[in-house]
Amino acid sequence: METMVESTVQLERFGYLAVENVQALASKNLDNIPSRYIRPEIESDVVSADESLQIPVIDVSKLDHDDEQKKLHFACKDWGFFQIINHGVAGEVIEKMKTDAHEFFNLPLEEKMVCAQVPGHIEGYDQVFVVSEEQKLDWSDMLFLIGQSAHLRDTRFWPTNPSSFEETMDKYTTELHKVMIQLMKLIAKNLGTDPEMLLSLFEHEIQSIKMNYYPPCAEASKVLGASPHSDATALTLLFHANEVEGLQIKKDQKWVPVKPIPGAFTVNVGDVLEIGPLPDLVKTKKALYRTVPVEEFRKIKFTSKQDGKFMIRKMKL
């Protein structure tokens, strides 16, 4: 389950091409999966075998100490990823979200398709951002919803089975919002800027929720659950629904597997925090990125296939 907090007042709607549901493909027990899912580039990817190389772990309960704040600054600057423990989100809130998510994804396909995306909408049950007939596809299905920005929700796409889903999601996203606020204030402090000023930029943020489901695959070594990408968010808080290692991040031209700590969230510093520099941060230093309206940024992101750090490359001066 992936939670993304994004910095925009308005949710634009984009249409995506329909493709066969991955769970439907998996249920056919095919010996050979369709070629659009085969990713030859996997063979040339370099994955780190150094098990001591792991993303930093931040203890949120100790962030009132300088040493832990310095660890957070290093994690944001040098990695852009870190795990957080002792974050204050109650275990029962997380477990209930896991249970409801599992119940939804375990429903018969026809029941899940009641929540399917429709042309012109980003919310709903489908695949991730399919924008062309030639695009390689991920071996995963997703449920994409709007979280705390309740007035922007389209309830047509919200599951009613399990019946507790909406209440569970409200509790879960409320707790994650609190964690996000705490982290953003400390990130601002580490940058030497006013925390309240930084937070004001996200006053009308959209909190979006993306739950990913990865069905079994007969040719698992040839497919990707998620194409290499960066997140068009301020912060992404990712919770691993189990201890299966799947997430990898790229550092120094190598893919580093993330070993999820039970109960922890993995935090990703998104593209939005890296671009459009704050005025007080470029008074004495040259800006490295151009500033664009959030609507333009969003349009570029959601009308393009996932392709590594292309958004950051596009915004560099």
UniProtKB/TrEMBL annotation:
Gene3D superfamilies: B-lactam Antibiotic, Isopenicillin N Synthase, Chain. It comes from the Eukaryota. It holds the Pfam family 2OG-FeII_Oxy. Keywords: Iron, Metal-binding, Oxidoreductase. Residues 205-317 form the Fe2OG dioxygenase domain. InterPro entries: DIOX_N, IPNS-like_FE2OG_OXY, IPNS-like_sf, Oxoglu/Fe-dep_dioxygenase_dom, Plant_2OG-oxidoreductases. PANTHER family: OXOGLUTARATE/IRON-DEPENDENT DIOXYGENASE. Belongs to the iron/ascorbate-dependent oxidoreductase family. This is Fe2OG dioxygenase domain-containing protein. It comes from Hibiscus sabdariffa. The lineage of its organism: Eukaryota, Viridiplantae, Streptophyta, Embryophyta, Tracheophyta.
